[in-house]
């Protein structure tokens, strides 16, 4: 279903309409495998290829590089594919990576891919019979080659079955997300060499992560009968190696079909030796099926963290697919010897047992993805925490916001690694939090350190209490997001014993009030002279055509971006009844967006936009004003309308697992509106029973007997057999394990958690 049709469908539904798509099975069922094609169509921007959980290599087919639809390199429904590259981004709104493209095919040799609408003009191939499962991908190409892919954490393993006769493998090191006409080439240097036994190479790329390097080392199960290198402009360059910018190599086989041809390829961001060491450590044999079995075992362990019973088959597939997508990244970034590239662009070596990671989409993932990890994978959460502390120490820009392959991209706004650190500290994840404080303090109070787009206007935010919309773009969202990061940073200041700074941050995190207009009840842009900017429309994205006042959102959505002081926002709006009415207005408003609105504002229910992260906590805000039953109804509606077990089944970019994590936690029956508070707001579980494997052998069981599409409401809750009257629960309780039992109903219990003392964030 295209976005316009789907948007119209959602807008025409009443705010509390409940979809009846999921019918309940009568008996418990076996674990449902994920569908790796979920999110590969529409705007999900996921990929179906082989990866290990949080692995360095994501070996996957690429169908195009020139469209926003193919930020991951792949879009379901494209009729031809280019080949198989070793690195990908899952669910992002910007494209990069796609390193070391391998193209198995037959003569004649073509060195250019050709356009997607004319695949016969290049090395593109039509394909059929795709098969994808965790750690494995297979497809049949029109050349007659059957390709199979699997992985280790740092190496890609290929198995190609050629028809009888000659064939070749093209290695295209010029393959990348394409630069536009007239732009400076995005690869400024590259090299490949053949030593008679191994093909090695490198390139430096200036796409999104500007200046990142990739190195590879490749071995083949049968030595080629001939090899050709090609340099810039596809100029022949002999048989031993080539340097330049856009390079290719062709490995020829006189009888490629004599038997299966295997390729082992290790990668590294550090150097050639790192790629060779990674390859030798992890790819020691030529038994493809053994590699595939090892990858399956790794995925079985990760996907076993959550098991559910009841619900429709489609709902279970959505859950398992979401758990898969929430297990792909952050991606491993350190070599087997512990070396990695820091955000200072220097090579560092980790202590034994430590690992470095890349691809942190922190503006997105601090909201639900990282809270999911602290719950089900505390060891991974500890590794991510230690890694983000190191990156904060090494980066010239302070705490990261979107680090990719040793480069701080500065993408989005804020520095939400601070929120991830503060959440981890609040939930008892062990780490040296004080070590991060000097880098955080410099970012927040030292105006001499450099800025990227994410931190613009910080001095004005500090000195004026807001950011002038006539000076800095996305000013309103910046104030709101900077306020949350101040709140989180105060917790790290506490860990460092910086009491004065902590107090200052707790005062400054109230700056959200300076962009809230009590007269209209909306967050609004202000000009440098203090006046509200005109014109203003709640569904508008900016008061000027020059730039936007909001980040991938509008005033309707941004007004509720206040997770750390919800009750302050309630008071500013005039109390619980006014706040509830404002939420009702959000979900029932006309869904029209102005011309030029970013495509990320998708999945509309009124002006609520589930397709993008600023809205993700908002359905749970009803619980703060005593209307928990409305949270239950809306959360159930969002789960059933915004997700499907289909290629276009994610309503917006999956954003490195954030969209998926929202579904997982909501389907379990709770969500972290404010992750740093270490509490969860209770909603409406989707299944009859869920078993969640926690750390240290503990288990959380969520029960909802008789739950169905017709019973979205909660009549009562018990925790370990005792009545639970609150509509929230602490992480410290859940993480100890136990049984959370929901009694579901087809009619709302408006008295449940309606008392002030039972609402989140209020004293008992």
UniProtKB/TrEMBL annotation:
<dbReference type="InterPro" id="IPR008928">
    <property type="entry name" value="6-hairpin_glycosidase_sf"/>
</dbReference>
<keyword id="KW-0732">Signal</keyword>
<dbReference type="InterPro" id="IPR012939">
    <property type="entry name" value="Glyco_hydro_92"/>
</dbReference>
<protein>
    <submittedName>
        <fullName>Alpha-1,2-mannosidase</fullName>
    </submittedName>
</protein>
<feature type="domain" description="Glycosyl hydrolase family 92 N-terminal">
    <location>
        <begin position="35"/>
        <end position="268"/>
    </location>
</feature>
<feature type="signal peptide">
    <location>
        <begin position="1"/>
        <end position="26"/>
    </location>
</feature>
<dbReference type="GO" id="GO:0030246">
    <property type="term" value="F:carbohydrate binding"/>
</dbReference>
<dbReference type="InterPro" id="IPR014718">
    <property type="entry name" value="GH-type_carb-bd"/>
</dbReference>
<dbReference type="Pfam" id="PF17678">
    <property type="entry name" value="Glyco_hydro_92N"/>
</dbReference>
<dbReference type="InterPro" id="IPR005887">
    <property type="entry name" value="GH92_a_mannosidase_put"/>
</dbReference>
<dbReference type="InterPro" id="IPR041371">
    <property type="entry name" value="GH92_N"/>
</dbReference>
<dbReference type="GO" id="GO:0005975">
    <property type="term" value="P:carbohydrate metabolic process"/>
</dbReference>
<feature type="domain" description="Glycosyl hydrolase family 92">
    <location>
        <begin position="275"/>
        <end position="746"/>
    </location>
</feature>
<dbReference type="Pfam" id="PF07971">
    <property type="entry name" value="Glyco_hydro_92"/>
</dbReference>
<dbReference type="GO" id="GO:0005829">
    <property type="term" value="C:cytosol"/>
</dbReference>
<dbReference type="InterPro" id="IPR050883">
    <property type="entry name" value="PNGase"/>
</dbReference>
<dbReference type="GO" id="GO:0006516">
    <property type="term" value="P:glycoprotein catabolic process"/>
</dbReference>
<dbReference type="InterPro" id="IPR006311">
    <property type="entry name" value="TAT_signal"/>
</dbReference>
<dbReference type="GO" id="GO:0000224">
    <property type="term" value="F:peptide-N4-(N-acetyl-beta-glucosaminyl)asparagine amidase activity"/>
</dbReference>
């Amino acid at each position: 279903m295209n976005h316009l049709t789907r948007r119209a469908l959602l807008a025409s539904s009443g705010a509390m309409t409940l979809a009846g798509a999921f019918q309940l099975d009568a008996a418990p069922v076996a674990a449902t495998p994920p569908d790796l094609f979920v999110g590969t169509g529409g705007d999900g921007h996921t990929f179906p290829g082989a990866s290990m959980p949080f692995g360095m290599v994501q070996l996957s087919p690429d169908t195009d590089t020139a469209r926003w639809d193919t930020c991951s390199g792949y879009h379901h429904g494209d009729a031809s594919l280019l080949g198989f590259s070793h690195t990908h981004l899952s669910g992002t709104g910007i494209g990069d990576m796609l390193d070391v493209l391998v193209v198995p095919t037959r003569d004649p040799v073509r060195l250019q891919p050709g356009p997607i609408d004319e695949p016969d003009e290049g090395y593109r191939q039509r394909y059929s019979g795709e098969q994808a499962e965790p750690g494995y991908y297979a497809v049949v190409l029109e050349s007659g080659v059957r390709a199979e892919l699997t992985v280790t954490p740092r190496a890609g393993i290929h198995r190609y079955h050629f028809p009888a006769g000659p064939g070749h493998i093209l290695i295209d090191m010029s393959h990348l997300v394409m630069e536009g006409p007239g732009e400076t080439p995005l690869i400024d240097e590259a090299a490949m060499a053949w030593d008679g036994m191994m093909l090695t190479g490198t390139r430096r790329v200036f796409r999104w992560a500007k200046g990142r390097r990739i190195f590879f080392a490749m071995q083949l199960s049968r030595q080629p009968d001939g090899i050709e290198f090609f340099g810039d402009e596809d100029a022949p360059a002999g048989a031993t190696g080539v340097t330049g910018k856009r390079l290719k190599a062709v490995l020829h086989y006189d009888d490629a079909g004599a038997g299966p041809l295997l390729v082992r390829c290790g990668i590294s961001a550090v150097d050639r030796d790192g790629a060779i060491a990674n390859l030798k450590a992890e790819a020691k044999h030529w038994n493809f099926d053994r590699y595939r079995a090892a990858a399956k075992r790794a995925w079985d362990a990760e996907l076993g963290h959550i098991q559910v019973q009841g619900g429709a088959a489609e709902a279970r597939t959505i859950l398992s697919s979401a758990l898969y997508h929430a297990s792909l990244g952050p991606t491993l970034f350190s070599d087997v010897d512990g070396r990695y590239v820091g955000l200072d662009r220097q090579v560092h070596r980790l202590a034994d047992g430590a690992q470095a990671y890349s691809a942190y989409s922190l503006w997105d993932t601090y909201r639900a993805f990282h809270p999911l990890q602290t719950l089900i994978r505390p060891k991974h959460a500890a590794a991510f925490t230690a890694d983000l502390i190191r990156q904060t120490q090494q980066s010239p820009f302070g705490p990261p916001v979107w680090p990719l392959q040793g480069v701080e991209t500065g993408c989005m706004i804020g520095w939400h690694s601070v929120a991830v650190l503060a959440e981890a500290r609040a939930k008892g994840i062990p780490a040296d939090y004080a070590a991060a404080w000097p880098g955080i303090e410099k970012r927040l109070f030292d105006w001499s350190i450099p800025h990227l787009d994410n931190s613009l206007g910080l001095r004005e935010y500090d000195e004026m209490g807001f950011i002038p919309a006539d000076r800095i773009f996305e000013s309103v969202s910046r104030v709101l997001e900077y306020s949350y990061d101040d709140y989180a940073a105060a917790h790290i200041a506490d860990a460092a014993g910086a009491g004065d700074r902590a107090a200052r941050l707790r005062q400054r995190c109230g700056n959200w009030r300076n962009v809230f207009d009590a007269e209209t009840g909306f967050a609004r842009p202000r000009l440098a002279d203090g006046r509200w900017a005109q014109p203003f429309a709640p569904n508008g994205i900016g008061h000027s055509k020059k730039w936007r006042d909001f980040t991938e959102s509008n005033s309707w959505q941004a007004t509720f971006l206040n997770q750390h002081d919800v009750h302050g926002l309630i008071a500013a709006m005039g109390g619980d009844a006014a706040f509830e009415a404002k939420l009702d207005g959000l979900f029932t408003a006309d869904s029209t967006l102005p011309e030029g609105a970013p495509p990320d504002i998708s999945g509309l229910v009124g002006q609520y936009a589930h397709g993008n992260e600023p809205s993700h906590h908002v359905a749970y805000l009803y619980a703060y004003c005593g209307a928990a039953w409305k949270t239950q109804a809306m959360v159930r509606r969002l789960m059933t309308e915004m997700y499907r077990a289909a290629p276009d089944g994610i309503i917006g970019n999956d954003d490195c697992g954030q969209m998926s994590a929202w579904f997982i936690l909501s389907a379990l029956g709770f969500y972290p509106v404010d992750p740093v508070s270490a509490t969860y707001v209770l909603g409406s579980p989707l299944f009859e029973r869920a078993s969640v494997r926690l750390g240290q052998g503990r288990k959380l069981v969520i029960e909802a007997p008789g739950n169905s599409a017709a019973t979205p409401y909660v009549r009562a809750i018990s925790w370990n057999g005792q009545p639970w009257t609150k509509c929230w629960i602490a992480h410290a309780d859940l993480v100890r394990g136990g049984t959370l039992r929901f009694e579901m109903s087809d009619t709302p219990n408006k008295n449940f958690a309606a008392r002030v003392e039972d609402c989140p964030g209020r004293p008992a």
